[in-house]
Write a structure and sequence with these properties.
The chain has about 525 residues and is α/β, with parallel strands linked by helices. It contains 15 helices and 25 strands. It folds into two domains: about 250 residues, P-loop containing nucleotide triphosphate hydrolases (Rossmann fold, 3-Layer(aba) Sandwich); about 230 residues, Class I glutamine amidotransferase (GATase) domain (Rossmann fold, 3-Layer(aba) Sandwich). The strands form five sheets. It has a ten-stranded mixed beta sheet with strand order 12-10-13-15-24-23-22-19-20-25. A seven-stranded parallel beta sheet has the order 3-2-4-1-5-6-7, with helices on both faces. Strand 22 and strand 23 form a beta hairpin. Helix 1 packs parallel to helix 2 and helix 1 crosses helix 8.
């Protein structure tokens, strides 16, 4: 592969890597580069920020979900058309539950053939940075560790001593020395509540961080490491010369808006009715459906439409999932359980994860849409819900000792704990409910996904499960996937590329349900 790009990793967690990755994406975008971001691991939150900063969909690369060959194929396919690809790692460079590091950032960087730029938290370090860096470089001599981003530098003197030591003892380039400034770091609450901020706030926050670090990061050096050709640099516009001192204050361009149109096929992030970022994905292929005209049945081409819950409370979706639905000819119609009075006219509903507990009182206040969802589910509307979506479909959510009414389709109450009830990869095995009309996934051998929830279900009654939990926690440690009417709701977030038939079977089920519905109502 000759893909232009780099892998940004760190020596450890909480080194400021995510904030710097977001800032670099925005800085390159402001210079008219088409930047394609990726995120290692099953995370939802970082990819949302990387998507906004680059104005292109961010995709997940994960060894549990995909084989090495499929990861490479996924990376190449989505890098086409971009000038530079940036992969943000998770945890530390060599961290892995595997003794041999086969699932580490280092292994992924080598698999993709990308040079590594390592973020180092130097807040409590000086010359001791050298043996640590040499250890990281020598631990795997097949890894291309080509650049260092020194983060949380205390002073110009501190920076000078660090760079002198690195230059004297190593051959690794320092491509940035960023000061210890709390305004540069995106706080965890901002990372997690991305869509509670409106368009101006999101862009403003990203622009502010990018502006703050722009004088401290050597973009030309990063482009050189990334193997971005001189021609591409010239086409993209002027590239600032490297600053002599990386701790020179940021230029007057620190608040530049960086307004660029999305690249073809990229996720559009326009402001919705409330100024909140929304996803605008429209299906372009038609599918077979049934049309009734004056009592006569006729085949015609009609696009299937699925409502996607997307607002401050619900925004955790893998881009791969939404794009697979689009590739299946589905039109995705975004709606807000927080603000919309009723569901849009759709054939099915997909409610992803998020933070419904934080917005529980607002969700309760929107009685009309809760009633509309419940009535339509009773009438047979297919609904697929993940984690936060499952919580929303229950009777109530109790958060901070306040109990709020939810949709009430699932006979259970949601409560929360301080420690996660389920956190990590999941594997589910479908249970066989003979004769059940909803069982669209019965021929799937197993299903891979991820869960991260502090919630559990209390006062459960009349609950049927769709899955045995092979790995993970699910609803009760043994089962996941609550079924009711045409609803399937689980704590697992399914990653479609690891189970490609999942949404294919759901779409087929929705189409068949529509046909039967029309026939029954003749």
């Amino acid at each position: 592969m000759n893909t232009s790009g780099f892998y940004i990793s760190a020596t450890k967690r909480n080194s400021g890597k995510t904030s710097l990755a977001i800032a670099i994406c925005r800085l390159l975008k402001q210079k008219n580069f088409d930047v394609q971001p990726f995120k290692k691991g099953p995370d939802f939150i970082d990819p949302m920020w990387l998507s906004i900063a680059s104005q292109r969909n961010c995709y997940n690369l994960d060894f549990y979900f995909l084989s090495g060959k499929k990861i490479v194929k996924h990376f190449i396919k989505n890098s086409i058309g971009s000038d530079i690809s940036i992969v943000e790692g998770n945890h530390g460079l060599y961290d892995s539950t595997d003794l041999y590091g086969r699932t580490s950032n280092a292994s992924l960087a080598k698999l993709l053939g990308l040079p590594v730029i390592l973020v180092v938290d130097v807040s409590e370090m000086n010359r001791s940075i050298v043996p640590m860096i040499l250890g990281f470089k020598d631990f795997d001599k097949d890894l291309s560790l080509n650049g260092l981003l020194l983060n949380k530098v205390h002073s110009k003197r501190h920076e000078k001593n660090l760079i002198k030591a690195v230059e004297y003892y190593t051959d690794i380039n320092v491509v940035g020395a960023v000061p210890n400034d709390s305004e540069i770091s995106i706080k965890q609450r901002h990372l997690g509540l991305v869509s509670t901020l409106n368009k101006e706030e999101l862009d403003g926050l990203i622009d502010k961080i990018a502006g703050k670090v722009s004088g401290y990061i050597d973009i030309p050096a990063i482009l050189k490491i990334s193997n971005v050709s001189t021609g591409k640099i010239k086409m993209a516009g002027k590239i600032d010369k490297p600053v002599n001192s990386l701790l020179v204050p940021a230029s007057d361009n620190s608040n530049a808006a960086g307004k660029h149109a999305s690249a073809p096929g990229a996720m559009s992030l326009p402001a919705g009715n409330n100024g909140i970022y929304n996803i605008n994905i429209n299906g372009i292929n038609d599918i077979n459906n049934i049309n009734i005209n004056n009592g006569n049945i006729s085949n015609r081409k009609k696009r299937l439409k699925i409502g996607i819950a997307f607002d401050g409370a619900f925004n955790f979706y893998y881009n791969e999932n939404l794009e697979q639905l689009k590739d299946l000819g589905v039109e995705l119609d975004m709606f807000s359980p927080l603000n919309d009075p009723v569901l849009p006219e759709v054939d099915a509903v997909y409610i992803g994860g998020g933070f419904p507990e934080v917005f529980a009182q607002d969700l309760e206040a929107n009685y009309n849409i809760r009633r509309d969802i419940k009535e339509k589910v009773e009438y047979g509307l297919p609904v697929y819900a993940e984690c936060g979506g499952l919580m929303y479909l229950c009777r109530s959510i109790t958060y901070d000792e306040t109990k709020s009414a939810m949709v009430g389709i699932i006979d259970a109450d949601v409560k929360l704990t301080k420690k996660p009830k389920g956190h990590g990869y999941t594997m589910l095995k479908p249970l066989n409910h003979f004769g059940a009309s909803w069982q669209w996934h019965q021929n799937i051998r197993s299903l891979k996904g991820h869960e991260f929830h502090h919630s559990f279900l209390d006062n459960m009654s009349n609950i049927s499960f769709g899955f045995d939990v092979i790995r993970g926690h699910g609803v009760n440690g043994s089962n996941d996937g609550i079924i009711c009417k045409n609803v399937l709701a689980s704590f697992t977030h399914v990653y479609s590329k690891a189970s490609p038939s999942w949404f294919k079977k759901w779409v087929s089920f929705i189409k068949n349900r529509n046909k039967l519905f029309f026939l029954d109502n003749l």
